[in-house]
Structures are given as structure tokens and as C-alpha cells.
Design brief:
Layout (H helix, E strand, L loop, with lengths): L4 E3 L6 E3 L2 H10 L8 H9 L8 E4 L6 E4 L9 E2 L1 H4 L19 H11 L2 E2 L3 E2 L8 E4 L8 E4 L8 E4 L5 E7 L5 E7 L2 E4 L2 E4 L2 E4 L8 E4 L8 E4 L2 E2 L2 H8 L7 H15 L3 E3 L3 E2 L2 E9 L1 E10 L3 E11 L2 E7 L3 E2 L2 E11 L3 E4 L2 E4 L2 E4 L2 E4 L2 E4 L8 E4 L2 E2 L2 H17 L2 E2 L5 E2 L19 H4 L4 H6 L37 E2 L13 E2 L3 H10 L8 H9 L8 E4 L29 E4 L8 E3 L1 H7 L2
Parallel strand pairs: 5-6, 7-8, 8-9, 9-10, 10-11, 11-12, 12-14, 13-15, 15-16, 16-17, 19-40, 20-21, 21-22, 22-23, 23-24, 23-25, 24-26, 25-26, 26-27, 26-28, 27-29, 28-30, 29-31, 31-32
Antiparallel strand pairs: 1-2, 3-4, 17-18, 32-33, 34-35, 36-37, 38-39
């Protein structure tokens, strides 16, 4: 069967729809998409604000609160206690379906009427300034995360304890400033590692302990900059590095960055998976164009940021998975969901379509802020028989009277929410993190934009005046306002200044970590710059036979499939062709590393 192509409604470029895609759309009883995969990603990301926090008034109590919704947002925003109280009923905002208006216009009206929560969280205790989190305990300033405990400054993490400044990492303890690290204990300043303990500054290492500044090691102990030592020599050599000194840490980071350019890189971080294409995919089968899957996925396509068992789904994320199945074109959908389509922030639910911020519900269509409800349309209660009779009529009406946005794009049944309806400006969303646009580019595509939030902080301590060593930091530092080293001159959503909390200071002292010089946002962006983009390039392996191209890396073994000849293998990778890293195919990489 010839693969048909369509012209994307948004970017006007052609895109292909594979035969198995049609099988999925038939299973879900939805039409094929009219936007290309990348534009569909853009559209979903415009509806997810993970980290941009703002001070505003509660529409329930008038109290000053922190929310992901800006003060001038038209959304009606309640703090956590008010939202989950019995003082209001989402059904009281319900409306009859109006067959003289497009569905999406009616949904927007409902979305602006019904209260929403200031920060999206569920089943969490003692969490402060945490957003899009589930089942958290004693956490602070974390986002897009599941089941962490006693953690701070985290993004896209799961099942960690006593950790700080992690990004896309799971099942770690007492670890700091890592990204893409799993199942590790006392691991610091590391990238793409698994099952590593008591180690520092590692890249692409697995099963290692007591290693320092190393890359590409497997099941090793007592190595420093990839050189082996006896245990006593290792411990003595390690004393040369005062890791409680900020200047020493920066120097080691530079040395490891140089080492990484001299070693080989696997074309993708894909492990224990079959038929997987993308990056950072673990324990998956039949996962195509997927990114940041910490564990367990099957028959999934065009998806990002998932954790937990997840299968038979397309176009989901960021934020999906969590023991879910049969999901389509949704953002922040997961945690025991089934047959949910075109949703935003829907958890513990089944058969929910075109809904926002709904939990523990089933058979909803076009609803907002519903909890433990069933058979509702536009927040109005129906009987099971009434619901099942009315939904097909609404779908028919959506196709007969589609919504047309300000860029003349048509929205029938099967399209996600228009980006112009998003309650967030694009520069507050994860779109800026993963698919950055300028203000002009965003406007040309019909996305909202807002000026940067005003910052009026007055630092009492300049970053250059902080003690270099953690041992010299007085307890009174928790009373100071520390200026960020970027001073607002970067493009990292700099907050200009930050504080050190008592719990944070205790962690730094216990782990012998020097104080940071950057605010949380700038630290987050520093980690983002260490990840590859969610984009794939077709490349050829850079193994030249006895050495890499340009003779930067000398192979340590013979690669039997091509001997001294240049490897002919091709692959799809997130390493762009112009990058300096040496990228090997799986066979050549395994011959050297495993």
C-alpha cells in the first residue's frame, strides 16, 4: 500500500500517514490528522505550562496565591484548598449544547466560567510551588513529576527520594544535578547514567560505583577520567578535588566536557527496547518518534515524556503514560487512563474527550474541572442513555459547523484545541523549552505571547560574593536574597534573584555541594542545553574501521561486520550532522563499550 501524504493545515508542508496509522485511527474511531506531527506537537505544548509561576489573587478567597495562570488571565483560578472544597459544584456551571454555535467556541466559554486550580497536582502532601505533579510528598518547586519524596527543583522526574536539581530522572536517592539518570544512589553532576553509586561527573555510564569524571564505562569501580586505580589510590587521588568548592566543580565540568568530545556516543539512548525510534527510550516495543520514555511503552507513536506502563496510543504528551492505554492527541493525560482523546490534564479517567482538568471520571465530553463524574457534556449531567444519544449528534455538528481560527485553520471533530484558546502565552509553556519560537514566529502561527513577567527583587548578596566553599557558608544565608549570575541578561527566563531555603542548605552541607550561582530557571535551562532536540536526522555511522572519522577516537576492538572499512550503517538520531560528537551505530558502539 502506497503511503498517502497530506498538506499540513498549519505549516503547509506535506506529511505522510503510514498504513498502521490508519489502523490506529480506525480503532479509535477518529479521522486522520490534518496537521503534521511537528505542528501537532507545537499545538499540544502550547497548552502545557510546567514551570512559569506568577503571583495573583485567588478568585475564591481573594488571597495572594502562586499560579501558572498570569494575573491578567481570564481563567477563574482557585487555590488548592478552595478548588478541592465542597463550597462549589462544577455541575452548576453546566450548559445545554447549542447547535447554532461551533463546539470549540462553546467549550472556551465553559473553560472561562468554571474554576480551575492554581497549580495542577493530585494526591500530594506537603508540596509547595509544585505543578503537574501526582502523589508527591514533601517536595518544593518541582514540576511534571510523579511520586517523588523530599525533593526540590525537579522537572520530569519519578520515584526519586532526597534529590535536587534533576531532569528526566527516575528512582534515584541522594543525588544532585543530573539528567537522564536512573536507579542511582549518591550520583552527582551526571548525564545519561544508570545504576551508578557514589560517583561524580559521569556520562553514559552504567553499573559503576566510585568513579569520577568518566564516560562510557560499564560495571567499573575506582576510575578517574577513565583511568583505573586501586581502591587506596583512588581514595587518595580523590582528595585532590575539593568538591565543596564551586571553582573546583566548574573546572571538573570543563574537563569532562572536553573528554566527551573525544569518546564515542551511541546514536540514541535506547535500551531494552525493540523496534524503537527516537531518544531516551527504555523498556519499549514498537515506539516510533518517541522521546523521554523512562519505562514501559508498547505500540506508541509521536509521544513524549512518559513513565510507567503505556500502550496503544498516538500523539500524546508532554506528560503521559502511568499505566494508561488507548490515548490520542492529548497533553498531560495519563495515570490510569483509557480511551481519552483531545484532553488536557486528565488523570484516573476513562472515555473522556475534549476536556480540561478532570480526574477520576468517565464518559465526559467537553467538560472542565470535573471530579468523580460520569456522562456529562459541557458540565451538564445526563443519563447514560441521553449521553450516548447526544454525543454522536455533537460529533456530526462539529463536522457540519467547524470552528475556524484566526489563521483560517478548520477544526472539526478529531482536532485538538485551537492554540489561540490556550490560557497560557506560548512563552510560558514547554513549547519554549523544546520547540522555541520568537514572538514574531509565534504570532505568525497563531500562538499567544506575553511580555516577560516583571521582577522587582533587590539582591542583598551578589553571586560573586558568595563563599566558594560550602563549609564557609553561614546559616544566615537563608535570610539573604542572592542575585543570579545571569542578572536577567540571558534568555533563560531568569528570575534575577533567588533564596536558599533551610532544607536546601542542609542538603548542600550534607552532600558537600557548593551553593549555586544561578536561579532555578537558569539552572533548568543549563540542563536543557545538555539534551538533544526532539528531532531526528538520518545519518551514517562515523566509525571509519580502525578509528572514528577524523581519527579522533581509536577503536579498541575489531568490528567484524566491516573490518577496516567505514561502517555503512545508517540510523535516525537526535545528533545533528554538524555536531562535534562522534556518533556510532549500535553495533559499533557495543563493540567498543559493552
Amino acid at each position: 500500500m502506497e503511503t498517502p501524504t497530506k498538506t499540513c493545515q498549519s505549516c503547509k508542508q506535506e506529511f505522510a500517514i503510514a498504513a498502521e496509522d490508519f489502523d490506529f485511527y480506525k480503532k479509535m474511531d477518529v479521522p486522520p490528522p490534518t496537521w503534521c506531527p511537528e505542528c501537532r506537537w507545537h499545538r499540544r505544548m502550547a497548552w502545557r505550562n510546567e514551570r512559569a509561576l506568577h503571583r495573583r489573587k485567588s478568585d475564591a478567597t481573594g488571597k495572594d496565591i502562586v499560579s501558572i495562570f498570569r494575573p491578567d488571565s481570564l481563567m477563574k483560578v482557585y487555590e488548592h484548598e478552595a478548588f478541592y472544597s465542597d463550597n462549589w459544584d462544577p455541575l452548576s456551571y453546566g450548559a445545554d449544547y447549542n447547535f447554532s454555535r461551533p463546539f470549540f467556541a462553546q467549550f472556551r466559554d465553559l473553560m472561562l466560567r468554571v474554576p480551575t486550580i492554581a497549580l495542577f497536582d493530585s494526591k500530594s502532601t506537603n508540596t509547595s510551588y509544585c505543578n503537574v505533579v501526582v502523589e508527591h510528598k514533601n517536595c518544593y518547586l518541582s514540576s511534571a513529576a510523579w511520586n517523588n519524596e523530599d525533593c526540590m527543583y525537579m522537572n520530569r522526574t519519578a520515584f526519586n527520594k532526597n534529590c535536587m536539581d534533576l531532569y528526566i530522572s527516575g528512582r534515584n536517592q541522594f543525588s544532585y544535578e543530573n539528567l537522564y539518570c536512573e536507579d542511582s544512589y549518591r550520583l552527582f553532576y551526571s548525564h545519561t547514567c544508570g545504576s551508578c553509586n557514589d560517583s561524580y561527573f559521569l556520562y553514559d555510564c552504567r553499573g559503576c560505583s566510585d568513579c569520577f569524571g568518566c564516560t562510557g564505562l560499564r560495571n567499573k569501580k575506582y576510575h578517574i577520567f577513565n583511568q583505573p586505580y586501586a581502591k587506596e589510590e583512588y581514595l587518595e587521588k580523590l582528595k585532590e578535588f575539593d568538591l565543596g568548592d564551586w571553582n573546583v566543580v566548574q573546572d571538573v565540568k570543563r574537563r569532562v566536557a572536553e573528554l566527551r568530545l573525544k569518546t564515542i556516543h551511541r546514536y540514541a539512548d535506547i535500551y531494552q527496547s525493540t523496534n524503537a525510534v527516537g531518544d531516551h527510550i527504555h523498556n519499549a516495543r514498537n515506539a516510533y518518534h518517541c522521546f523521554d520514555f523512562l519505562s514501559g511503552a508498547e505500540n506508541v507513536k509521536y509521544a513524549s515524556w512518559s513513565n510507567g506502563e503505556f500502550k496503544d496510543s498516538y500523539d500524546t504528551g508532554p506528560g503521559t503514560g502511568g499505566n494508561s492505554e488507548l490515548l490520542y492527541d492529548g497533553v498531560s493525560v495519563g495515570v490510569q487512563n483509557s480511551r481519552c482523546m483531545f484532553d488536557c490534564v486528565v488523570w484516573y479517567s476513562n472515555d473522556v474527550r475534549y476536556s480540561l482538568n478532570c480526574q477520576s471520571s468517565n464518559n465526559l465530553f467537553g467538560c472542565a474541572s470535573m471530579r468523580s463524574k460520569s456522562h456529562c457534556i459541557l458540565n451538564k449531567q445526563y443519563s447514560k442513555e441521553e449521553y450516548e444519544a447526544l454525543v454522536p449528534k455533537i460529533i456530526e455538528h462539529m463536522n457540519a459547523m467547524p470552528y475556524v481560527d484566526k489563521k483560517d485553520r478548520t477544526y472539526k471533530y478529531g482536532e485538538f484545541f485551537p492554540p489561540e484558546f490556550s490560557p497560557f502565552p506560548y512563552n510560558d509553556t514547554v513549547g519554549l523549552d523544546y520547540m522555541p519560537l520568537t514572538e514574531g514566529e509565534a504570532a505568525a502561527l497563531g500562538y499567544n505571547w506575553a511580555p516577560p513577567a516583571a521582577r522587582s527583587y533587590r539582591p542583598t548578596v551578589k553571586p560573586e560574593n558568595l563563599p566558594a566553599k560550602i563549609g564557609d557558608v553561614p546559616g544566615s544565608i537563608t535570610n539573604e536574597v542572592i542575585g543570579c549570575a545571569h542578572g536577567g541578561t540571558c534568555h533563560d527566563e531568569c528570575t534575577i534573584a533567588f533564596r536558599i531555603t533551610p532544607d536546601e542548605l542542609q542538603f548542600y552541607r550534607k552532600m558537600n555541594i557548593p551553593l549555586p550561582r544561578l536561579c532555578f530557571n537558569c539552572r533548568h535551562w543549563d540542563r536543557l542545553r545538555q539534551r538533544n532536540p526532539m528531532r531526528l536526522w538520518e545519518r551514517t555511522c562515523q566509525c571509519g574501521g580502525v578509528a572514528s572519522e577524523r581519527d579522533v577516537y581509536r577503536n579498541s576492538s575489531t568490528h567484524p561486520h566491516h573490518g577496516a572499512e567505514h561502517c555503512p550503517n545508517t540510523f535516525q538520531t537526535t545528533f545533528a550532522p554538524e555536531r562535534q560528537e562522534i556518533v556510532y551505530c549500535e553495533e559499533c558502539y557495543n563493540a567498543e563499550i559493552v
